[in-house]
Each structure stands twice: as C-alpha cells, then as structure tokens.
Records
---
Amino acid sequence: MKTFLLPDLGEGLTESEVVAWRVAEGDTVELNQPLADIETAKAVVELPSPYEGVITKLHAAEGETVAVGAPLIEFDVAGSEQQGSGADASAAEAPSAPAGEPEDAPSPEAGPVATPDETIEEIPAAAEQEAKPEKVSVLVGSITVHGGKPVRAKRTWDVEPFSRTDRPAERRANRAMPPVRKLAKERGIDLQSVRPSGADGLVTRADLESHGSASAAPAAAPASTREKVTGLRKHTAAAMTQSALTVPHAATFHQVDVTETLALARSGDASFLALACRAILLAAKRWPDVTASFHADTNELERFAHVNLGIAVSTDRGLVVASVDEAETMDAVALTVAIKDRATRAREGSLSMAELTSSNITVSNVGIFGVDGGIPILNPGESVILALGAVRKMPWAHEGEVVLRDVCTVTVSFDHRVLDGREAAGFLADVAAVLERPSLALAR
Amino acid sequence: MTTETLTLAKAVNAALADSLDADDRVLLMGEDIGKLGGVFRVTDGLQARFGEERVIDAPLAESAIIGTAIGMGYRGFRVVAEIQFDGFIYPAFDQIVAQVAKLHFRSKGRVKVPLTIRVPFGGAIGSVEHHSESPEAYFAHTAGLRVVTASTPQEAYSTLRAAIASDDPVLFFEPKGKYYTKGEVDRSITRDLDTANVVAAGRDVTVAAYGPTVETALRAAIAAADEGIEIEVIDLRSISPLDVDTVVESVRRTGRLVVAHEAPGEVSVSSELITSVVERAFSSLEAAPERVTGYDTPYPPSAIEHDYLPSLDRILDAVDRTLGRRSSRDELDTAMASTGAAR
Amino acid sequence: MSITVPAPDPALAVGIDCPLRVLDLDGSRLPSELLDPHLTDIDESALTNLYVDMVRVRRLDTEAFALTRQGHLVLWPPLLGQEAAQVGPARALRQDDWVFASYREHAFALLKGADLGEFAHVWKAYAHGGWDPHELRMAPAQIIIGAQSLHATGFAMASKLDRSDDIALACFGDGATSEGDVNEALVWASAFQAPVVFLCQNNQYAISEPVRVQSSAPLALRPTGFGIPSMRVDGNDVLAMHAAARIAFERARSGGGPTFIEAVTYRRGPHTTTDDPKRYRDEAELEEWTAKDPIDRVERALERMGANMDAVRAEAKIRADELAKELRAAAEHAEAPSADAIFEHVYDRPTKRIQRQQAERRAFAASIEGTR
C-alpha cells in the first residue's frame, strides 16, 4: 500500500484543486499514466502516476481543493509496504528554501528598526507569523517569496548578550586614527580630554605626547612631576653608576699656566683643546699605562697599541664620548678637525658604534662650562679621564714677577688598580709641562 | 496619489508601459518579449498594446540587440533592450564596453546613447548554469556607463523610469529572485540614478547592499533586533556611480561597515565601496570593514547555491565580527595571524 | 532602381524547396539519388535497431518530464518529436568522433553511453556536467546558445592538424543560427576546411520565437554563403537523417571539409518543463506535426517489410522500461553534493584564496547548530 501525497508542483500554491480525475478507484494504472488534471496558478497540468498498481482510494472529489502534502491517492503496489510518499515534496522545496529560517517563528515585538520603505512587510501581526515561503515556478527554476518573521539560526556557542559600550554621540567629538586610539588606550588617556590639533576633532599622536606633559587644567602647579628617563640619559646613568661603584677612583690635579698654548691656539689652525690633546698624547707615550684597561673578571691588564682618544661631548640628550682612534698619529690640526667632526656628529646622533666604544682614554673639556674642574668619573673600561678646566686670568709667578697669566686647572681621575699615585702624578706633570712650554713638544 | 500592490515583475511592466505611453520614441527590443511576454512575463501584454514595431522580438543575438540599438539611437529612438539572462550578456560585452560606453566621449557629447539595458540578474532561483550570474562589476569598471539596481517594486518602477528618461546609457539590473515579491508602488514617486537609500536606521553597524541582497540585509536587521543590535541598512541603488557620501555619513555614526552582495567578492562592488569608505572615514572605523559575498568561484549547481549566497546568518556573523563579538572566523583568524599567511 | 542580388550558390545546397526524405509518412520508401547509396546496408534488422533507439530516447525524455512533474528533477528541456533528427546522425558516428551539443541533445548522450546516475545530477541541479567528456567523446552540454559550434570547429581543426580522420559534430537549433558564434564558426570551418559537420535541428521555435524571426529564407541556404555545402532534410525521417549524416561525415573524414545539415522537425513539447507554449502557438500546428511522428513512420515501414510488430514493440518496450526504471532510480537516489563542491576544481590546483574561503565557509557552517 502506498499513499501518494499531493506534490508541490512548484506553482506557489499551498493547495490545489483537482479539476478532473482521469482514473477511478479500482483502476489499474501504469507508471506515469496521467491520473488527474490539477489546477495551478498558470494552467491545468497533468499529474503522472508515480507508481504502477491499483488505485484503491481517491481522497478528493473533482472540484475539491487538497492541501499540498495531504494524501491524494492510495495505491496498491505489488510487493510494497505501507508507506507515505510525498514525491519528494521536501526535496523539491529544499534547493530553494533558505537555510536557517524556521517556518514557525514566535511573534516578536516591533523592534527599534525603522523601515521607511515598504520593502518587506512590517513586523507582521501574530496571525501571519506562520507564513511559509512560497515558491513560484519560472522557466528555468523557481522563485521563493519569503514569509514569516526572520530569525537568526542558533549558534553552537553560548551567545553573550550585546551591550552597547560607547554611545555613538560620544564618538562624535574627538576622533583618532586606530593606531592613535590604541596608544591613548595604552596610556590611559581619555581621547575626549585631549586637545585635538587635526581638522574636525582629529587627535594626533603628537597631541597625545603633548597632552602627557601639559596635563589637564592649569589650575594649581603640581608640587613635583616625574618623567621617565629613557635613551642616552638612561644609558649614561647606568654606565656612571657601574663605573663609580666598581672602579677605585683616585684623582690628582694641577694648575697650569697655559698662556703660551693659548697664544698658539689663537694664532694657528689648531684649537686649544686639540693642543691639550697633543700634550696628553705626548705624555701618554711616557706613561703608556694611562690607556690600559683593567679586567677584574679575568684579573688581566689590557694594553693597547694605539691611543684612542675619547672626547666628551655634551648633547641635548646627554653626555657622549666620541673616540678619535689612533690619535697619536695626528697632528694638532688634524686633531682639531677630528674633534670638531666628532662633536658635530655626536649632536646629530650619527656616530658609529665603534666611535662610541673604542676610546681608551678620555678628555673632558669642562672648562667650557666655566668651572675649574671636577673629579670626573671614568668612562667604563678606561683607566684615565682628564678634565680641562676653564682658562682664567690669574696672578702668577712668571720670570720672577707677579703677572696675570692664563691659568687652567687640569684634573686626572684614574683607576687606582692600574696606576699608582706616582704614575698618575708623573703623567699629569708631563701634560702640564707641555702645556706650559709647548716648544717642549719639539724636543720630546 | 494612488498606490497599488504589484510584484516587482509587474512594477517593471508598469514602468515600461508608462514609458512607452509617454514617449513614442521609446521602443523595446529583446528575445521572447513579444507574444510570450518575456520569460518572466515582465513584458506581458505590451506587444498587444503597443504593436510589433514598438515591442520587437529580436533574433537570438545579444551583440546585435545592443549594436542595433546604438544605431537606432542615432535616429532618436530610446531603446530599452532586454538581455534575457545575466549569463547571456557576454556576446554583447564588446558593444556595451567598446561602443555604448564611449560614444558620448568619443563624439565630444554630440552623440548621445539614451539606451537602457535591462538584465535580470542574481541567483536563488534553483536554476541551471549561466542563469544566476551577477556581472555588474564588469560594467561598473567601465566609465561612461551607469549601472543601477532595484530592490523593491517601488524602486524598480521609479528607477527604471529614470533610467529610460536619462540620456546616459544605463544598465538596469533586475533581481530575478525577487520578481514575485510584492510591494506598494506609487507611480508618482520619482527616483534619481545617483543616490543610495537608508532603508532602516540603526546605531550599531551599517550594512550596505543592493538588489536581491537588500531584503536579506533587512531580514538580518530584524533578526538582530532580537539581540538588541541596531543595524542601519543602506540600499546602494546605484553601483556606478556609487553614493559613497551616504555610506560615509552612516559609518561616521555607527563606526562599523558590512557590505553584502551575491557577486563574488574579488574585485567587486564591495572592494570599491570599502576602499572608498576607508579613504574617507578611516578614523571613524571602530573595526575593520567586512564583506559578505559570493565566494570566488563560478556559481555552483543550484542545489548548493544557498551555501554560496550571502544569507541572514552570514551577514550577522560578519556584524558580530565588527562588534568584537565571537564569530565563526575567530579561530581561523587567530591561526592565520600566527602563521602570517597571506589571504 | 533595382539591383539583382545574386542568391547564395544553390548548387551547394540540396533539399531547399523539398527537404530530403526517403521514408514517407505511410512507411513507404521514396527513392533518393543522393541518399540511397548510403542506405544500402539498412535492412529490417538495422531499421529495427533504429526503431528501438528512438523508442528508448522518447521514453528517456518522457520519463524525465514526468520525474520533473513529480519533483525528482528540477528542470527538463524535452526533445519530444526530435528523436529521428538525433538518432539518425548519432548512429552514423564513429566512436572517436566528438559531439558538441546543446542542452537538448539527450539522444546523443544516451547513445554515446552516458551513465544515467551522473546524467540525472545535472537536471537535479546537483552538478553542472553530466559525464566525462573524454570518456564519451562529447563536450559538456552547452547552455550558452551557439558557443559549442566554435568548439566543434576548433576540435575539427586540431583533428586535421593531427592528420586524424576523427570528425566533430556541432548540434544546435534554429535560434542559434542568429548568434555571432555560429556564423563565425561557419567562417572558420570554411576557411580552414575543417572536418566539422553542423547539425541544425530546426524545431521551428526558439522558446517562443518562430523560426521566421531568425530568418525569412530557409536556414540551409545560409551556409552556402560561406561556401559550405548544405542539406535540408526531413528531420522526422530517421533514414534520411542517417544517410545525410553519413554523407556529411564521409565528406569531412576524407578531407572534403564541412557540411551543414538542416533537420526540419518540430519541438512538440515546451521549451522546458515550465514553459507554456499555449501562449505563442496553437493546437492545430501541434497536431499537424504530431501526425508526422518519426517513430510511427518507422513502425509502418517495418510493417511493410513484414516485421513481427508485436515482437518488435514488446522488445522495444522492455528496453524502454529498463531505461526509465534506471533513470527513475538515479533521480530518486542521487546524492546531493556537499557545499565543499563550491570550491573544487576551480583551478588545476586551489589557490590560497579559495582554500581560505572554503575554511571560512566550513567554520561558518560549524557555527550553526544542526548544520552539517
């Protein structure tokens, strides 16, 4: 026994009228034999028999309307069991029915969505909730007309409730590009409190930077401010700390009459500093350990073939020591050029790594700051640092009389593990001697 | 002001009838549009009413339909040509792109091409090959052509009338999957060929679509309302020129954009729209824009077309991504970020 | 001023005024100087085979039509009435000859051995292609009108380059003769003298357009303008079609170049299962052509030959029923493709973009409860 259900002829109807029967109960029919004329939207079509067998029951009379999917004809088919067959009504519908849209949807309230155009029905009244999609046949397929309230398919995870975090109106005032927004968030800066420099309320990265230092309202000046130390200054701080803490410093100083050297500088192409460096280089020849380096970890003293003269340069970012390598091969004019070059590039920040690390003795011209001297801290890895103080006119014993002479204090700070007092003093005395009588350089 | 309830197909029919009526230089040309009334019955009754010289059954040659229409234009006829299905437009591609698009420019404005080319497009009709294409991007890429679509019967009526009246050549893409959708049509309403339409207002996400996907976007908006999410739906209407202003204005308010269409995403309308919005409103975007489109493959056998076409759920999945909520792509995105694999 | 415009070369065309026919409606043989030499081996047995072929083809067609009405197939373009126009030439082909056909050449697919299971997939919209083209020597059915005529011509050109005697058969309808592709194919076939045969089944309609919309002159005259010999044949006469095809295939095979055959027949069914021909043609015309039924004619011919028609009909019915049952089973039990089929075989090897999208789609499907 097989029950044939009225198939979906794809004509967009949920029911069809049986216009005429071509068979009667008790008739034996062949496969595809026309059974009935069924009325559709466009025409009357023949319904071919899906089985071969005997008609045992017709469920509708001529002129009667049958719902699609309702039993239409009962067949007695040889060798079959009781089954229903809707002639794949669902299969016919499946290709067109959109996924994830259940036929029966609960009645919702009208949502906040406005639909000014009547593109689809407004949220329909409860009675229309059950409306199934209709299918209309066309020449090459069928068109589905949607019915019922759209509902989202259930997801395989637990859905978090939606909460609107920031109101759109609040976004209107200040805007920022996504990277700047991220930066503001990282720094805990509220974008809306920043003064935007860009057009139309655009907050730039620079705005954030200056926001950090200017802070909020100008009301009361803060008792103190803090600023993170970064870059060069941070590095210098670390280096100085390490040097001061690990190296036994000792110092010796001497006031030197530099009148002749100064006159030499004024009349020639060599700078005063360069001439002083020449004095240092000459003295270093006699006291070579001034460029040695003590390695505490291996308990070794490292000696160098050349004098790499470190020049201390003061920059916006902090103190930089730039090396003039193999300075002992250079005359005063060459040194002048080299020192100027290092100073310029130190301020530009374009010194190479080698130039920043290869010095083995340093000279610091603190005199340009107007002081006599100080006790400089050794550049890490080095054994001697020499500070040149300001040149001042001072009353001096010169050729038996008291006259005003150009005098400068020279301080030598040294690693006491490498040099003892005698060596340091001897070195300083030799430097002083050349500074007092530059012509000695010819003789030495 | 009277409104009538019409299917989209009937609305097109009404626009054609009213245009034929209003201007006796308007004429229709296409395959099977006469006695049969068109394979979708869109031109039903028109030949009987206006005669064989104004509603012409064309021999089976798409290139010739367009080429001869150009020639008719020289004598002042405003031809409304029909290409029977989207997939059949390609023999006419040369005439459209090399001739129709360039004649005004080439003649320094002395020769106008007031041609309207009607093309049923899009899928979801359970059909066979070549009957479900979305070729609009090829034409949007060609200067000199206007490319417009309609999403509702009212839009179809008013936009088609504007297209026929326009002195520019217009490709009018009709969503065949919506031919039997009904809607209210007021024939006195006029529409232009340039602007997009905000069809639903919302605060959280802008979803821009055109043609058959507008209804999908609206259905997604209704479903999203159940979760408290407000989606602003924009019917782009004109694909070329794109009304970027309207979309940018919306995105400035919502901060989020999803673009949806049936056509494959690669080098498409969504590529163009998203780029334009990013260029103009980058700082308003809370999240990267998303697009929900056909995959970059040929249109599949229609038994699986619903896995291919943008659906309500796929659109909402993309909406979730813009809102920073969990979406189906999360694991994939994480995996891709760690391998640095290119898309 | 009148100018005499020379007609296309009539010498190249035969049957223009009276389509070639060797089997009259009552089953009697009509003599044909042109066709008879190519039918000398057609005895009662051979004619019976052709008869059974046509009965099987009709049964395939009508069963598919019914299956569509019953919801097992989504669409079917029927060939009812065109059985002889297709079976005649199909049985003149050699196995290595290739066929480039439209969506209505079901007879060629069947007789070339298409597997009905795979075939059914196309009309269930489960797949785009219904067979392995290299296995069947038949290109995938073409929906874009006329495109296949160029492919056939190219195949023929290649066969000639290979010094092979394989030929190509392009099948299309009356509407297709208006398409640029078909006319270009005629140009090329003629210019290269390609071993291609153009079979135009003029079934009088292109959807709703009667053939006079495409041409006021007989279609068989057109190819003569391209220098291609042409035959206008009664498409409902399986013997005439068979002989004409033999002539055309032989000409192509022996280096004689292309031939055009216009098979004058009638599309008794609708364009497809949901077309409504009542809108554009009348019953009288349909009845007129039903009276020229190609299968009836052969029955009468066999009767005249003294065949045992009861046995013949019974044999034909058994074979047809088998076929119908096979098709029905295939249609009812075909397995729907998985969504992954969207991404397969787009290129020789999938691109990263496609692989990524396939993964995205899977992830999306996995996120919906209850989806496979």
---
Amino acid sequence: MNKSDFTILIADDDPDYLFQTVFNLEKAGYKTIAVESQAEAESVILRFKPSLAIFDLMMESDDSGFILCYKIKLKYPDVPVILATAVSHETGLSFSIDSEQEKSWIRADRYLEKGIRAEQLDQEVMKLLKL
Amino acid sequence: MAVLKVLVIDDEPGIRSGVSRILNNFHVTYPFMDEDYTFEVTEAATGEEGVTILDRDLPDILLLDNKLPGIQGVDVLEYIRKRNYDIVVAMITSYASLDVAIRATRDGAIDFIPKPFTPQELKSSIENITKQQYLKRITHKMKQEGKKIRYQFLSVLSHELKAPLNALEGYLRMMQGKQAGEMIDDYATPIERSLQRIQGMRNLIMDLLDFTKIRLERKEEKIQEVRLADIAASAITTVQPFAIQMDIAINLDIRSDAYIMADPDDIEIVFNNLISNAVKYNRIGGKADITIDSSENAAIIIFADTGIGITKNDIENLFDEFVRIKNEKTRNISGSGLGLSIVKKVVELYHGTINVDSTPDVGTVFKIKLPKKPITIT
C-alpha cells in the first residue's frame, strides 16, 4: 500500500501547528483531515474511520486529547492514535504510555512532544501503520 | 458529618470508659463549619500501648494522663513531637505540677483537663480543641490551594509562551528545507503567520508586565485624583489605528466629568484593555461606545460594542486567567487571555465592580463602577 492510501485525522487548536503538521504529512504523501477542536474531531470520528489519528492534548478542555483517544478507541479499536502535546515539559506533569497501568487509561499508542521534526513524525506514523 | 479520632491514654479504667461514653454521644457544630464533628474513641491503658495505637491510627485528638505505669505522659508527648504527628494533645491529670505543665506545654500539649472532670468540662475542652483543629486544617488547605493556583498559572503561562515558539520553529524549518518551493513568495503564509505569532507573544509579555505590576506594586504614594475622561481619550488614541483598519467608530460620551482617586496607570490598564477588546471582537464597520457617568459615590464607565458577543456559557469563566473563547469567530483574533483577568483584578483592588451583559452577534456591554472616595488599597 502507498502512503496516499492512508488518511490521517489531526486535531489541534493551534492553527499553525495544524498547518505545519498537515503540510508535513501531505508532503510525505498521506491524505489528511484537519480539525481545530475536540468537538469537530468527534463529529468526524462519527462519520469516518481514519487510518490514524493525531490529537493535541489541550484543546477546549485540558484533557480533550485523552477524551478523543478514549472515544476513537471505543469506536475503532484498531486505529492507531498519537497524542501530541507541549505540556509535559512545563507542567512537570510527566506521563508516558510505557507502563501497563498508564496504557490502561491513556488509550494512545504513541505519545509525542510537539516540535518534533517532519522526518521523525513520518517515521512514527510509518511504524504505527506498519509501512 | 466528619469524624475525629480520639485516643485516651489513662491507666484508670473508669476514666477511659467515662471518656468513651461521653464523647461517643457528643457532636460539635459551629455556624462557620461545613459539617458537624463527631468522635470515635479508642482506649489505651499504658503509654506503650498508646504509642502503638498512635502509629497505627494517627488519631486527631489525644487525651493523655501524665502519670502512667510505664513510660510517662511527657514521654508520649515527646514521641509525637519527634514524629511530627498532627495531633492535638490535652493532658488529663489530677496533680498538674507546674513543672509537668511547663514541660507538657513546651512539647505540644494545648489543654489541661483536671481530674476528676464532669462530662460538661470534658465536652467544653473537646469543643475548643475541635475548633482549633478545624481552623488549623482550613488554614493548611488554603495555603495548599494558593500554591496550586500559582503553580497552575505558571504551567499555563509557559505553555502559552512555548506555543508561538513552536509555531515559528516549524515555519523556519519549513523554509530551511525549502519544503514549499524555491521562491520566497512560496512562503507568504508562513511568514505572515510568524509575524502574527510574534505580535501575539509581544502582547502576552506586555500583559504579563501589567499583571505583575498590579500584583506586586505598593502604590499608596501613586494615588491621585484621576480624570476618567483624560484616561479614556488617551486610550482611544492608542487603539485608534487598529479601529481605523476595522472601520470602527469609537465614541466617547461624557455624561458626568467623573474623577476618582487612583493610580492613573491602573485605570489606563482598564480602559486600554476594554477599548481594545471592544474593537478587536467587533465586526467591520461596527461601533464602540464608551460612556462615563457617575452616581453619588461612584464613577460609572460603560464599554458597549456591536461585536460578536459572548454566550452565557462562556461568560462564566470570562475573567479567569488565560481564558480565551475559542470558536469560529475568534480564531483569527489574537489575545493573551490575560486582559480581562487583569481588568477584574484592578477593579477589585479599588473595591469596584464589573458586570458583563452580552448577546451573541449583537454586542457586549461591560459596566464598571469605581468608588470616587479615596480608599485603602488592599
């Protein structure tokens, strides 16, 4: 399968981060759907099954990303999810999804710091899509 | 209903069962407490037994006899002090010698209950202790919450500062890798967006300066008579260039030439923020009306706009720090999310009030009342 056979859903309320992520992913060859809020992401999920999803953690509420992870896994257990955020550094609120206990409530497959390079993001996406 | 754990250490069985009987049916209530307190009594006949129970149950209140068969009451006190247990101790003793009293007080006993005591004596002692314990806990809790709020502020702040840097870095990388093309014109959007994010960050820094200024500065010496019409006029001049771009008419209506006693910098912050909001969240070709009026004791300032308005839901958190209402209409408006929280802090500093009334797509009205009389800044 080609990268262009995959559609990635991206939700982020920072329009620039969204623009850049979409730009980088499309440049790498994927199709994308970009939304700016948890509410929009939820309505997309209802109608459409993406190949992979990238959610920002803090949107309308501080835990929008967690909620979206939960909801998408409920509907499509096989869709890989990346949680992207800039919070952990500043808050010291560090969480990872390495331990079984964390995996049980953070339903993301991968957790990424914002500001990672385009090639790195592509690598992570390819891994999760088993390309 | 909250339960306080009481441990009584006394070698006389009559005293122990008396305490149990009296306190098991007793409850303490105060008008300012959220809930009633009841008591759960555990008994120990020796200091050694008492210490074991202390470690296991961590009681809230200890009634302690000094003269015990093994280790003495004062030894138990010292044990508690060394371990930093949060326990209120009252000594029950038949012969409170001055020496024991001094040592016990030094080691943390707060009350003495003479033996033998009547049920009423015991109850009034316990009532005092409960009250004291309650106040201690409330104070502790409030301190903790204060810390938490500061911590939250800092973490959100650093998030707000970092987001524009991430955006800029992303755009620069895009250009560095010539990912959108060879020509500079291929990067018009990234450049425009970068400039906007830089402006946003600059505004945030300015707002932060205001924010710390009103928080930290002592300003008794800066209080003077301030003519609101002057402050309004200067704020309008500041915002005017932006208003012209959006084709918004700013009108100033002085119904009463009001003066108040204040630090002019503070009042300027209020006018600048509310007038720039009235322009920023307006529609092209709209209006922003500022009215200055006064009642007997207060100056009244009204900021009315014909803008996008605020929903009832969003008004709830409007004055909180870093609250930005995010929707289709606001997505291209930049703001630090600090402006209104600063305005509210200033208004409260002067014992004034601020109200907001808004209809989505019609407009928003902010109404501020500030006392005219000189006040003590709190």
